[in-house]
Design goal:
CATH topology of the largest domain: Glucose Permease (Domain IIA)
Number of strands: 20
Radius of gyration: 47 Å
Largest sheet: 8 strands, antiparallel
Bound molecules: zinc ion
Strand content: 35-45%
Number of helices: 5
CATH architecture of the largest domain: Distorted Sandwich
Helix content: 25-40%
Order of helices and strands: HEEHEEHEEHEHEEEEEEEEEEEEE
Length: 320
Amino acid sequence: MVKQTINYIKLICIATVLILTIMTVRYRPAYAVMQNNEIIGYVSSKDKFQKNIDENILKTEEENVAFVSLDRVDYSLEFVSRDLINEEEIITDLKEKSKNIYQVYEVSNGDEEESVFFNSENEANEYVANLKEEYNKIDTELSITTLYVENEVNEEVIQEAKAKIQEKLEAELKQKEEEEAEQRRIESQTVNGIYLACLPVTGGSISSRYGVNESVRNHTHKGIDIAASYGTPIKATANGTVKYAGYYGGYGNFVIIDHGNGIETCYGHCSSINVSAGKSVEAGDVIAKVGSTGNSTGNHCHFEIRVNGTQVNPQKYLYK
Ligand SMILES: [Zn+2]
């Protein structure tokens, strides 16, 4: 009976050892590698594996790559079949899932839609400096921003974006230049703060200039003569009030408009007059028609600008 019990215990011991041996041969503790709460494989050493990731995935020699992006890896200690340990497979898998991240430099011109991306900071700096120099007449809002992206910038895309920015800046520059030209024109047509907005006669030609001595009169010419066909409209060159409208000796039918600030404009030899003294006129209003009344040898408008009663050369302001 005792012998039988001893044999039974022996058998249990042998079985246990056998089972343990089989267990140890087939199973072992290992780390489950997880990404996004999903087991992607098993490794025997967490540290060794992490080093493998660092050296073979995260470290890169590729040009322009700022860093390699990889989703976080977690570990959990488990007792698993040795067959499941597959470190190299996991590395290959993670390497495929990893992404190269490039540092690029975005040059934008205020507006978010207008931007160029460069792979190199130097290129971006140079581009901005060149544009600022080329378009120094306008207030460019060029700025550089560093961004991390998954793709390098393609040269074709760079050229297209550059063209867009250039086009916008060209348009701004053109507008600025036009505004400046218009401003200069307005300033050049302004006498004592009075803007001479239009010509008294459009389409005529200058037949006698200010200052000339001609046999038709016994003094130097105090205005300019604009020859035009009979009946051509004569317009007020600026806003003002009619000071005189009627026949006036050698001037024939004559209109004087007072514009304020000591400025008057005068229109002589008219065939007819459309306004009367005291009437307000605006620049461009037809005040009379071209004729040859008074001391005149042909159809023309004698035009004067008077500053505090003294005639000045109208061509300093109009018909330049
Ligand atoms: Zn004249």
